[in-house]
Amino acid sequence: MRATIFTIILALLPSPVLAESKGVITMIKNIHWLGHDTFKIIGEKVIYTDPFKIKKKDTADIILITHEHFDHCSPEDVKKIGGPNTVIVATSDCAKKLSGMTKVVKPGDKINVEGVEIEAVPAYNTNKQFHTKEKGWVGYIFTVQGQRIYIAGDTDYIPEMKNFKVDIALLPVSGTYVMTADEAIIAALDIKPKVAIPMHYGSIVGSENDAKKFADGLKGKIEVVILKED
Question: Residue 85's CB: how many other CB atoms inside 10 A?
Fold first, then answer.
């Protein structure tokens, strides 16, 4: 169902673009939204982002944590998906709360973990004080099956987004602590991903209406896939 929105478009595309778009569709099928900012992404490795309220035990190869707030850096949830070889990528303040193999990053860092290229990019508020720039919190751009995936973390629309080159963008839409749906629309238009997926709603703040508003605002401009919570 997630891929059907592309069917008619694909039939009209030249073959190089067609192959590229099929890669995005395949990747979307392997992105599972577990609520809030938590995704399980299956590719060459099993990657989790900001594990929070994990319902099932699992073993992640890589865990990406954007910042230290409890709904993003939850040691008890990390334990539910951690194994002896799991690598955690996190900011320094979050890493102090965690045990296991942790790689500390700050905005601008580029690392390779188990063959996965990962870039830490800025994430901060511009019109509120919940996530200030000086804290050095991050989003991530990482490559899975040839697709560059961006998870924004807790951020507002920021000027750095104009320089991000990504295929799939996971963007917060709920407002209050992060971008509103309207601001996320502007962010998506700057980033220009092939597909945008809304997040950060339906748990602590925001609702599916925010996701729908985001999708409506990008209709005819950028494909939006609203994932059902797994």
Answer: 11
Which residues are registered as beta bridge partners of 224? 196
Q: What's the predicted TM-score (pTM) here?
A: 0.90
CATH number of 21's domain = 3.60.15.10
Q: Is 56 helix (H, G, I), strand (E, B) or coil?
A: coil
Residue 229 lies in a domain: no
Coil, strand or helix: which one is 173? coil
**Inside any domain, residue 96:** yes
Pairing relationship of beta strands 168-172 and 195-199 according to DSSP bridges: parallel
Q: How many domains does the chain have?
A: 1
Of 79, 33, 32, 36, nearest to 60 (Cα)? Answer: 79
CA distance 157 to 42: 28
Token pair of 126 as six digits: 């511009």
Q: Among 173, 156, 61, which residue's Cα sits nearest to residue 118?
A: 61
Tokens of 189: 């238009």
For 150, the domain range is 4-224
Residue pLDDT tens, the chain, 230 long: 444 444 434 444 444 444 456 788 889 999 999 999 999 999 999 999 999 999 999 999 999 999 999 889 999 999 999 999 999 999 999 999 998 889 999 999 999 999 999 999 999 999 898 999 999 999 999 999 999 999 999 999 999 999 999 999 999 998 789 999 999 999 999 999 999 999 999 888 877 999 999 999 999 999 999 999 98
